[in-house]
Amino acid sequence: MRLIIASTGATGQVYFVHLLRVLIERDIEVHAVLSSWGERVLLHETKKTFRDIEAMGVVVYRGENLLARPASGSFRHDGMVILPCSMKTLAGVAGGYADNLVLRAADVALKEGKRLILCPRETPLGVVHLENLLRAARLGAAVMPPMAAFYGHPRSIDEMVDHFIGRLLDRLGIENDLAYRWEGEEEPPMVEG
Ligand SMILES: Cc1cc2nc3c(=O)[nH]c(=O)nc-3n(C[C@H](O)[C@H](O)[C@H](O)COP(=O)(O)O)c2cc1C
Predict the structure, then answer these.
(1) Residue 9 · residue 38 · CB < 8 Å
(2) What's the confidence (pLDDT) of residue 193?
C-alpha cells in the first residue's frame, strides 16, 4: 500500500507525526508532503523539522515542489490524507486551485477518482468554511475533523490521538486496535412515569 500524507499550517501536528509513525510500523509506503506553513507549525508544535520527518523513513516533499511525483496523475497510490487541513488548503481543494504540491496532489486524487480524506481544523467555523467543506464532500472527499472522543474515557492526549488515528485507519481500510471500540451497554431500565 502506498499513501500520500500531507500536513498543512493548522494546529494538530501531533496527529500528522503519529499517523506517519503507525503507517511506517505497518510497512506502508508513505509519501509525505509539507506545505510551507505546515512545516512551520510542525516545528512550533512538535519541534520536528523536515529532516526529522525524513529520518522517520518516509519520502518527504516540500509544498513548493510541483515537480515531485505526487503532482502527476501517473503516480499510483492508494489514497491521500491531509492532516491537519487548514481552511486555506480546504478552500484550494474545494475550488480546484492547485498552486502547491498538497493542493495539486489533492486535485489529482479527485480527478483520478482516488480516495481523499481531509481532516480540517478550525473553530469556530465560518460560513465560507462550512460551504467549502460541503463542496469538498460533494466532490468526493471524505471529511474527518480530528475531534476528540470521550466515550472510551481516554486518560491522556496520546490515547485521544490514538483513537482518532485508529478511526482514520478504519476509513483507509487498515486493521488496527488503536481506536476504542464501543462494546455496547445494557439498556437502562424504563423509568415508570
Ligand atoms: C501556530 C499557527 C496555528 C494555525 N492554526 C490554524 C488552524 O488551526 N486552522 C487554520 O485553518 N489555519 C491555521 N493557521 C493559519 C494557516 O497556517 C494559514 O492560513 C496558512 O496560510 C495555511 O497555509 P497552508 O494551508 O498552505 O499550509 C495557523 C497558523 C499558525 C502560525
Answers:
(1) yes
(2) 65
